[in-house]
Structures are given as C-alpha cells and as structure tokens.
Design goal:
The structure is a homodimer of 238-residue chains.
Chain A lengths: L1 H4 L2 H5 L6 H30 L6 H8 L3 H5 L5 H24 L5 H17 L3 H6 L7 H28 L7 H13 L1 H4 L8 H14 L10 H15 L1
Chain lengths: 238, 238
C-alpha cells in the first residue's frame, strides 16, 4: 500500500484518494489488528490458561489499553471463541483445498490430517481442543460443537470414500476418525513442553504412523499374527 | 467373609475371633470404603468438573458426612490424585502382566494398549488425562509427571522391542508412542457423550486401527502411493 503512494505515477499526477479505497484500507487495517489481538490472546491462554488470563494481560502484551482491545472483541469469551475458529479454519480450508483433487481419498485425507496436525501444533492448538470445556455462553458452545462435528464427519466421509475407492483398508469409519483426530488433538497437550520438532514434522510423522500401522508390511498377512495370538492365549491361561 | 461366619463348622464350634484377623478385616474394610470414596469422587469430577465439585458433593453422593470423607483422604487435591493413580494403575498392571509373556512385542504392546483404552474409558479416565492441568500441589504434580513418563517410556520400549523382533514396522518410537497414547487419551473427551460402545470395544477398535493402518494390505507396497503422490503434486501446482 505504501509503495503505491510513492510510485512515480502518483508523484506526477497525485490522484484524489478514493473514499472507498480508504474505507477498504481502514477495514483491512482493522482486520489485521484484530488478528493480532486474537493471536496475542491465544499466546496468553497457552501460557497461563484461560481462567488465569485477563483482558489486561492481553492488552499489556500488545502494549495497548484495555478499551483498545474492546474495540476488536466484546469479551474474553469471544476472544477464546475466535482463537478456536482461527484454529479450525485451517482444517476447514484443508477440506476445501482437497475437495476437487482427482486423487484417491487416502491422499486427500492425509493432506487434511497434515493441516490438522499443524493447526493443533500452532498457537491456536490449546484453544481448539479446550475451548469447549471453558463454560462459554451456550450459543458459542453450540457453534463450537457444530464446527467440531463438521470436521469429524468430513474425516469419516473421506475414510468411507477411501474404503470405496480402495485406497483405505476396510474399517469402522467412526472409530478410525476418533482415533486419528484424538492422536492429533493430543498434540496440544504435549507440544508446549516438547518442541523438538516443528508442527509440520509432527504432522508428517503422525500421518506415517496412521498410514502404515504397526504391523510390518513384509509379513504375510495373518500368519505371524494368528500364530502369536494363539501363543498369547495359551500363555494367558497358564 | 459373611459366608465364613455362617458356615456349618463355625456353628458347630464357634472359634474365638482372632484379634489379628479382626484388625486385618477392619483394614480391608477401610480400604474398600476408601475405594468407594475415590470412585464417587471420580464420578462427581466427571459430571461437574474438578473445580465445580466440593467434598460436600462427594459426601452427599455417598450419603455420609464430610468428616467421614476426611477419614479416608486429607483433601480434594488428594482425591483427584488418587483417582489419577487408580486409572494409571490399570495400565501399570498391564505392563507387569505382559512382561514375561513369550510372545512378539507387538502382541504385548496391543495388550497394554487395550488395557490403556479401557482405563481411559473407565470412570477414572477424565482424572487420568486432566489431573495434571488442575494446579495440584507440586509434589503431586511431579508424581503424576513421573508416572505418565514411565508409561510413555514403557510404550516406547515395547515399540523398540517390536522393531527389533520384527513384529513392528520400522518407525519413530517417540512419535508413534505419542500418536497411540494421544488417540487413547482423547477417549476421555468424547466417551462421556457417546457411549454406544463399551470401553473394551473401543480399545479393540483402536488397536485394530493402530495395527493395520489406513493403507490396504493387498496393495503392492509403494505403487499406488507413489503414483497418487505424483498426482497430488501436479494437481497442487495447477
């Protein structure tokens, strides 16, 4: 924006600034600042927990006054809600991105799971997985539940499509979706203390585990498994 | 115990009750009642959350007075800690059970993961996965961290053993352990609302997902995967 103002053309014949453009820029500026407030809130919630964080703390971190914060959000509850939305929006965007890709469903699912993992490892992770427990107003809680359910059903749908197109092994879509999302959600619980990998590296490592499973691929299916299962049984009744 | 008192032999020649046995029985009786207090606390914490539950609530649920509760535990913090221990003890017992089984490590790991899943789906699940966040006294928090770390390292050890004995595919033991435990821990977040399966059924379903992974077993390794990966890339740059 600044570069446009000092461009040679502007110097030669300074245009009358369009009031519409100025208004758009003000709006965009407000949006950028609002995002900064939400991001600062997410960091404070991460650091001290939601109930131990005040709007004063968030204002202090941004070096502004509390009324300035109120110019962008109406309450601490709304801030938490916005942090939640900022996190899940990354996952919703991933669903949109893969929707029209002409690739097997497992590849589309993996792409979504990678974005999911990165979102949970981002500053919004804690808010994404814990917002629902913080006694938010009923309307916000309902909205959170709806968005979570939408993501859950999106994952189940990709699993079902994968089973149909043969890219995913036959499975229980609901339990599989719960297992995958649970593993990813849990990143928010340990990632603050153990940051030895980036969010993208963790997401990649998790997708590798999900894809391949524990059982080695080279083993003829069933043989070792059945044999050891019998041995476990006989050992257990000893 | 009651059946022993009314057995024919006891009727024929009533023995002088041993003071030692009485003392042992009193101790056992105290232990049983203490367990009931801990179980009632777990249920209240599940229902209303830790901070919204008072010792009065727990006493009311047990139909006893608050001083009676204090006879078994010294504080609400200790109650939460005991609930945590009751949950993780089921997992620790599973590690002990499988330790000497002469079966491949993957089968031993699966057995531990099944018990883990059942524990998280039990009334102690919420306390197991959330006790650490509740601002407990430092000594309790340290103990909780130690027990969690012990379980984490137990899982990693079984994964490493499985990779060595060929029963588990080559993988990153730390990330794999985090993914497995995370999926299981997350059960505590959704199981209260969706109880369509038993804890054992969920644990079984999860172990099936972990074992097999998403990729179908019948697909020749790498072929479809590599092909679709190329297609995702080319689709992404469009």
């Amino acid at each position: 924006m600044n570069s446009r103002r000092i461009s040679p053309r502007a110097k030669a014949a300074p245009a009358v600034p369009s009031p519409w453009r100025a208004s758009r820029e003000r709006l965009r500026d407000r949006e950028v600042k609002r995002e900064a407030v939400i991001r600062a809130a997410a960091r404070e919630f991460n650091l001290k927990g939601y109930h131990n964080t005040s709007l004063d703390d968030i204002a202090a971190r941004l070096e502004v006054t509390k009324p300035t914060v109120y110019y962008y959000v109406t309450s601490k509850e709304q801030l938490l809600f916005e942090c939640f939305v900022a996190g899940v929006e990354q996952i919703r965007a991933a669903f949109r991105e893969v929707r029209d890709l002409a690739v097997p469903a497992r590849e589309r699912l993996n792409a979504v799971l990678r974005h999911y993992g990165e979102a949970v490892a981002s500053e919004f992770g804690w808010c994404m997985v814990r917002a629902e427990d913080q006694d938010l107003p009923p309307a916000m809680s309902r909205h959170i539940k709806t968005l979570k359910s939408e993501i859950d059903h999106g994952i189940r749908r990709l699993i079902k499509e994968g089973v149909q197109d043969g890219s995913i092994a036959s499975c229980d879509p609901k339990m599989t979706a719960f297992a995958l999302a649970g593993a990813l959600n849990w990143i928010a619980h340990w990632y603050r203390e153990d940051r030895s990998l980036t969010g993208a590296e963790i997401a990649d490592a998790f997708v590798t585990v999900f894809e391949g499973g524990l059982r080695p691929r080279s083993t003829p299916q069933g043989s070792v498994r059945e044999r050891t299962r019998r041995r476990v049984r006989s050992a257990a009744v000893r």
